[in-house]
Amino acid sequence: LVVLSHYLPSNPLLGNYRRKDAQTLGERVQQLTELSLKRPVIRLSGEKFRHFIKTSPRNYSFIVMLTALAPQRQCSICRQANEEFQILANSWRYSSAYSNRIFFGLVDFDEGSDVFNMLQQNSAPVFLHFPEKGKMKRADHHDIQRLGFGAEGLARWIAERTDVHIRVFRPPNYSGTIALVILVALIGALLYMRRNNLDFLY
């Protein structure tokens, strides 16, 4: 985990909250659905966080990762956790069970430090579940220290909190196949170069 210091930059978009919050629930769900179809993990600024998550009513849950991906933050675990989070969100996006019951979002410290401050978080990565109704409970904060941040573990946590079951699909890993092809090619090249010394085989 990386510990972050807070600062609250002035936000020229604050004046837009009233206008955007006036959207109906159906309009917000439609907008979220369109965003998630383009990118399964929706990047949330402070404005978007308030608009989509803090505005009531909601009929959807939101899984949010607080992170710090900028190179100067030197948070290697943040990059690893982000890869797992992306795998999880993509698994849901391309699942036959996909619906607008749940959305995935990401708040980067350098883009939304006010969200960190609002949630009283000073470290990253952090995984939070914002339920569609009621206040957050302790179990809505994923315990990385105890459960890790693997996509499968996150999927089990989400199932417990939302009753939405996500089957994780990992992209195929071709590194082993590529290494084997390279090895065979090297052996073939070596045999070709030494063919004059292999006459005894024929």
From TrEMBL:
Regions crossing the membrane: 174-193
InterPro entries: OligosaccharylTrfase_OST3/OST6 (IPR021149), Thioredoxin-like_sf (IPR036249)
This protein's pathway: Protein modification
Membrane topology per record: Multi-pass membrane protein
UniProt keyword list: Disulfide bond, Endoplasmic reticulum, Magnesium, Membrane, Signal, Transmembrane, Transmembrane helix, Transport
Predominant localisation class: endoplasmic reticulum
Any Pfam family matching the protein: OST3_OST6
One record GO biological process: magnesium ion transport
Keyword rRNA-binding in record: no
Domain of life: Eukaryota
Designated name of the protein: Putative magnesium transporter protein 1
Species of the source: Amblyomma tuberculatum
